[in-house]
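Hi,

I'm pasting everything inline rather than attaching a file, because the server keeps stripping attachments. The sequence lines come first, and each chain or strand is labelled.
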Amino acid sequence: MGTAWRAVVIVVLVCAVSVVVAWAALIGPQQVFTGPGLDRAVVSTSLTPTPTEGGDPLLDTLRDQAERADPPWWAKALVWAFEALVLLGMLGVAVLATRAAWHAWQSRPERSPGVAMGAFDALSEPSRVRAAIAEDASEQEALLRSGHPRNAVVEAWHRFEVQGARAGVPRRGSETSSEYALRLLDLVEAPPGAVNRLAALYREARFSDHPLDEGHRDAALAALSDIHLGLGATR
Amino acid sequence: MNRPDTVADLAGRVLDEVERAVVGKREPLTLVLAAILAKGHVLIEDFPGLGKTRAARALATALGLDFARAQFTPDLLPADLTGAYVYDQRRGEFDFRRGPVFAGLLLADEINRTPPKTQSALLEAMQEGQVTVEGETHRLPSPFHVLATANPVEYEGTYPLPEAQLDRFLLRVGFGYPAAQEEYDVLRLRLERRQEEVDLQQVTDAAGLGAMQAAVEEIGVEESVGRYCVQLAAATRSHPDVLVGASPRGSLGLVLTARAWAAIRGRDYVVPEDVKAVARAVLAHRITIKPDLWMTQASGVRVVDSVLSSVEAPGALETRPWTGPAAR
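And the predicted assembly:
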């Protein structure tokens, strides 16, 4: 059971106990422990003393009247204030519980679609990625051969993102392109030497001001070719 | 010195040397060196006996810096740190006697044991690179770096650094307990050398370190990476667990440390992975968690992790102009 669920259970228990305590406080301890009991007999208000066995009837009558009289206004105000406090407390607890649940929901770990799939789909992920890379290999190579070497290297590297998305393994927003492509190529067990060479060329092309020339393009083509060969993606 | 591989080579040799004294802590030691290359100061917060003092001494030796250690106690006065004027009876003049702050690398041991007045004197020296005594200003040597240590478990008789002063430290790192094999290596090496001290070789000197720092200053940062640093710092401010997020000094620290990290890795350009690598150490201590979350597991490190997994990283095809101090 996660922390959020434990918090929810605790909050529900606290609310329940608060309700019982509020109810008990409102109806009084006598009602809580003994209930309403039998109806009282109507007592004559006559002041004529009658010989009885139980004691002074006048005193009994006054006591009875005092018990039936309305409580004073300040007592009522106290009860209302208490009720309002209990209600506010319950509302506050409910708001806090909602916030905690919302926060737990928002900060849940990000899961890739691949993880959410069943075991069968997760197992087939590498083959789907491998197929997507193979299918797109010629297009990726064509991108690397065209345009300025800097743009060509970056676009060819970005092509791994396109291939991964087609295979159902998209890049997470917080993931850098390098992290994603390395994860993808690790998934399909691409040759690590070639992957690292191409990754270094991508980083240099994307984030440095170094002049990139045809030598860099050739190095990138060689690395990409090795990756494709390693995956059996060449035609 | 402006070749990135030269900086990386020197940095690697320094770290190899320091690692002879502090076994198996390559990652935190690299962070500390990155902070020094970025001209910053480091707060090492960890339990006793994990090699904080040894690491500082070893770094000073390998970098060829004058080393001074100041034990911060409750009765330490600012003058004990900065120095004071002493009357010379023979000449009838006051001479300035320099305190331990006049060193290339100062180990401020247990900085949170001294009252705020003395803490402030050190922090002023860190920020300004000078101390003023009796109205006279004295420049500190350059490079000047402070490695301060703090014990995270003892609260009795300590004066925790306020947020504004924590912000002055470029990084906060912890060494953590070693793995079983690393701990055994510590024992084995100590038994093999038959003495407590480790004889370390000096790799460079103050001038060499200055040149490395100058080389780091030449490293430019592509705009999307700089903006990524800003977004990370800004995201800490709007995180639901946070009372006060990282200041602009936090985003600045992020980009400066990422530059030094890239230089240690042998590059003269910064990639987003460099920023991610240093983000915890740079940002976590600049974040104040809401007081009502003190019973939860919320912490600066968790906030930084959350922010790193939610802020959009620079993509491959963003086409922004490359800018930076080394724009050529």
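The radius of gyration of chain A is 40 Å.

If the labels don't parse on your end, tell me and I'll reformat.
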